[in-house]
Specification:
Elements lengths: L1 H4 L4 E6 L2 E6 L2 H10 L1 H11 L5 E6 L17 H12 L56 H12 L10 E4 L6 H14 L4 E5 H13 L3 H8 L4 E5 L7 H16 L3 E6 L11 H8 L2 E4 L5 H18 L7 H10 L4 H18 L5 H7 L14 H11 L4 H5 L5 H17 L4 H7 L5 H17 L1 H15 L1
Parallel strand pairs: 2-3, 4-7, 4-8, 5-6, 6-7
Antiparallel strand pairs: 1-2
Length: 468
């Protein structure tokens, strides 16, 4: 952690009993002052016992000063720097934060749009989109249960919280974030105290509260609300932050306050999260939002087209074109919205009417189901686990019972047949196993297929399910 926090610390001046150091950013200045000032001073005092004061300034905020004696040619500064490196012990379980304040250790999609906590620990909820309401949510078979649970929680008044926590699981563009915003909007209209956070804002809020020494206020105010909504919990990282997240869940749930979470996988598959946190999330109501069926896709298209038509009265889409788009754009709601935008652009830019042929040209890049599907090893593991009534963690574990070994070998075989991954890579994805283990599993399944027609049929079914 030395390179992240202390490598850009430079000596500006030593004058009488004081030393002045500089860093390039205010963020770095605040962090070093809060966590390392005493230890850095002790290292300098070991070389210059007369030093009693250490100050840190931002280089861009002060004029250039002459280099003091500690930075001379006598080599003491380099020795001091090496000793400072020895005291750089940032808690390793916090997300790494670069000196410019960006989270270098977070996924690119999990970057914050603004701080989640102010200098006094006040928590700033992420903004709720007023357009994302229950009225604007299109209900179908794949999301009806999730919508009903979310609506009931949002309108619940008095008494203990319902289905606590509510955990929504869905892939990209299937509506989980829409429901989270709808819950928050409806609850706020009812006068309830709501905080909506993405995982990155929760993490940054906690780290910022540590930096400003307001973590106690951050925790207390977070636990004093009526409804906590957290999106993308799969991105929560770091042991300390996970512990605080778990403590927050426990405090709110035990106090009867409502918690709603969403992620792209079930709680049991959040392998980066502490087991106790996963267990707490799984202890409520877990609802999966499945893929959009064709009827639901048509309903989403019609709702979106109606909104666009009100702003562009000359824009008309025939029922046959709607049906065509709903049939071929079979991915998610975001691609359906993209299809509407492309149809609108085609009509307004060319002036020609929309037909099936012109619509096909306009949305060609969105028709992904016509391309060969790339199967992921994770998808194979999930499907095989579900098919054989074991968990994905069982398949990745060291367990050697017959109920686990056979699904594991089938999953390895399918990974070899349906992906371009090498045997060593497949082994790494199956709990860090050696490539010879994968090769043994593949050969065993290949030999079993020759004498077991039922297994051969089962494998063909699994292949079709993965490739469809």
């Amino acid at each position: 952690m030395y390179s992240s926090w202390l490598a850009r610390l430079e000596m500006d001046e030593v004058n009488d009993n004081s030393a002045r150091l500089s860093v390039p950013t205010r963020f770095l200045k605040s962090w070093i002052e809060a966590h390392y000032a005493d230890r850095v001073l002790s290292v300098y005092r070991s070389e210059h016992p007369s030093l009693t004061n250490l100050s840190i300034v931002v280089r861009g905020a002060s004029r250039e000063m002459p280099v003091g004696p500690l930075n001379g040619s006598n080599g003491k500064t380099s020795a001091i720097v090496r000793r400072i490196e020895g005291v750089a012990r940032v808690p390793a379980d916090l997300p790494s934060v670069a000196v410019n304040g960006n989270a270098a250790g977070l996924p690119a999609e999990a970057r914050p749009s603004g701080p989640a906590a102010s200098a006094d620990g006040e928590i700033a909820s992420a903004p709720l989109d007023p357009r994302l309401t229950f009225e604007s949510f299109v209900v179908g078979r794949s999301n009806a249960l999730a919508q009903a649970a979310a609506d009931r929680i949002a309108r619940h008044e008095g008494g203990p919280a319902l289905y606590n926590p509510l955990y929504l699981q869905a892939g990209v563009g299937l509506g989980k974030t829409h429901l989270l915003h709808a819950i928050g909007n409806e609850a706020r209209r009812a006068g309830r105290r709501v905080i909506y956070l993405t995982a990155d804002r929760f993490m940054y809020g906690f780290v910022a509260s540590l930096k400003t020494q307001t973590s106690h206020a951050f925790k207390e105010r977070l636990r004093g609300i009526d409804l906590l909504v957290i999106d993308d919990v799969q991105f929560i990282q770091g042991k300390t932050i996970q512990q605080e997240f778990g403590h927050t869940l426990n405090a709110l749930i035990d106090a009867g306050r409502q918690v709603v979470c969403a992620a792209d996988r079930p709680p049991g598959d959040l392998e980066s999260l502490d087991e106790r946190v996963r267990s707490r999330l799984a202890g409520g109501l877990v609802v999966e939002i499945a893929a959009l069926d064709e009827h639901l896709r048509a309903g989403i298209l019609e709702r979106r087209l109606a909104a666009v038509t009100s702003a562009h009265p000359g824009f008309e889409v025939s029922p046959s074109v709607v049906a065509y788009v709903a049939r071929v754009v079979a991915t998610n709601g975001r691609d359906l919205e993209g299809a509407v935008n492309r149809l609108l652009a085609h009509t307004t830019l060319t002036g020609s009417p929309l037909t099936i042929e012109t619509a096909e040209a306009a949305i060609r890049d969105l028709v992904r189901n016509r391309e060969p599907k790339r199967v992921k090893i994770e998808d194979i593991q999930k499907l095989v686990a579900s098919r054989y009534n074991v968990s994905r963690s069982d398949i990745l574990s060291e367990r050697r019972t017959a109920a686990v070994v056979k699904p594991r070998q089938i999953a390895m075989y399918l990974a070899k047949v349906l992906t371009l991954r090498s045997l060593p890579e497949i082994g790494r994805r199956f709990g860090g196993r050696d490539h010879t283990t994968v090769l043994h599993a593949v050969r065993k399944i290949e030999k079993a297929v020759e004498t077991d027609p039922a297994l051969a049929e089962e494998l063909e079914l699994l292949k079709r399910m993965l490739l469809d």
